[in-house]
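Dear Dr. V.,

Thank you for agreeing to look over these. As mentioned in my earlier message, I'm a first-year student in the group and I'm still getting used to reading structure tokens, so any feedback on how I've presented them would be very welcome. I ran two proteins. I've put each sequence directly above its structure. The first is here:
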Amino acid sequence: MTNLAYDTPADGGDVSQQDIAAMQALRPVPRISIQAFCETEGVASPVKLAGEDRRMAKAHLKVHMGGIATAIEFYQSAPTPNLILLESRSEPKQLLEQLGQLSEYCDPTSKVVVIGHYNDVGLYRELIRSGISEYVIAPVSMTDIVSVVSSIFVDPEAEPIGRSIAFIGAKGGVGSSTIAHNVAWAMSTLFKSEVVVADLDLAFGTANINFDQDPVQGIAEAVFSPERVDEVYLDRLLAQCAEHLSLLAAPSTLERVYDFDPDAFSQLIDTAQRSAPLLVLDIPHVWTGWAKSTLIKADEIVITATPELANLRNTKNMMDMLKRLRPNDPPPRLIINQAGVPKRPEIGSSDFAEPLGITPMAVIPFEPLLFGNAANNGRMLGEMDAKSPIVGLVNEIAHVLTGRSEIKAKKKAGLGMLLGKLSRNKK
């Protein structure tokens, strides 16, 4: 059989839509140590990018330039990690000999992945037979690296991890929390799926008011005692709001200050994702280490903005930053709220969305009577008026965020028609 050598460098910079879709299906890698020994920049670059992906946040990855010979020298005086990534341009016979030498210094529990440049079925079978976890042919992409690590260390039979959806406002007072709570309620009632709402605004959170709850315990107990957080402890802190909806309520008091480390909510979120298929994170309009970290790790981000210039500026800044921090994920979703306030100059939805380069997931018109009555009665919009067009929009958002439908293209007259319909309903 003819051995074919491949030396084409992988493009470590741009991530295709196909790669993004593939990455969305991957589960986070557990807390492991990884050391890579690369002979070419074409392999080292995607390996480094893989280490920066949010799914690899818990893993500790170190990249060394140099192949198997460098690894042999290195491990003569250092312990081996959970996983060793080895790039080799050696021919099959020489590669097998080098791996034999390396095995003398490797801990038996260490996994080894070889990135080779020869497409040889015989070599692949021999490597697997000798205990190598996987043989990948260069060029490789960042997605290839994360996929192979995930396939080795994530148990395919483990319980599925719930999907986290983070809601944040482009400015204070834009209605992000109200939308988050109503979308969570819609998900739980429409799909009969267990949903947990976590109110991360510990000082001024409104979820307890909106759901008409007054629990003795809530999210503060979990955040200030992370070592106690497991599924049993979390269940004790949850307040039942509806048949399939539970709440981690904020204390909404000023008895203490709420300054947190960047990873303060990580243990809580990880546990909540093991407890329910859907986790809605209500994040206050702040830019702190913990808020940034929580947004980076979320499966989906929804930014709510009102159609004003300051909101557009803030949304643009957040979009640009989050795209840089999450290059292997889709951009955040956008909801334009409180559109059509009488006598208020505002930016049209198409003009608002154009510089952002995205289509709004929804444009929700200003309807103070419906929202005000719901807020004052501690009820959801769907409980107040299930036939309202706004409730229909909220249900559409729930469908899109759970992957049950895509964003529908709206006609330009759509908002005007909806506003007209709302005004006729008032008469």
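The second protein is here, in the same arrangement:
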Amino acid sequence: MERKFVLATHNPGKLKEMTAILSDLGIQVVSPADVGITVDVEETGATFEENAMLKARAICEASGLPAIADDSGLCVDALNGGPGVYSARYGGEELDDRGRYQLLLNAMRGQTTRAAHFACAIACAFPNGDTLTAEGRCDGAIAFAPMGEGGFGYDPVFLVPEKGKTFGQLTAEEKSAISHRGRALADFAKKLATYFGQTASI
């Protein structure tokens, strides 16, 4: 029996990524548009997990189907963990990706402590009220200048020491193997398989 889950995204890349991971569990992943809903959720949570759960619950309620959402961002030690949950809105809505990472580099000027990590939280809400959460992180450092054309967001300035490259210089495959999102997805798939095992036997 194929189960249908709604993924809270308009990003076809994320949909494809989630489909590849969950199809083994007999899950069909669809977008809100596929089931005829549009939900605009205000991300008022103080953590990535809270924001992901807000989105998952809203989509689940609107669609009547299990819903999955994620929230992620960049946490920089020298900026007390910022921009964190505000990563996508850092510097205001009018800035693009390049504007945001340039603002970050300016804020880091003169900082010798460059440690940072990307964090990702995935939340899943079921119509029966059950929830699942998973998290992943990738440790690295803020580069002194952008490098690489790949990825998006802060990827060109996020340096992965063991690779000696930024996320912007890695191939999509290299990045997903070590990224916060890749790790969170792997953790989520494992928890979901366990959940189905338990609910199937109830």
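From my reading of the second output: Residues 3-200 form a domain with the Maf protein fold (CATH 3.90.950.10). The radius of gyration is 18 Å. Does that match how you would interpret it?

Kind regards,
E.
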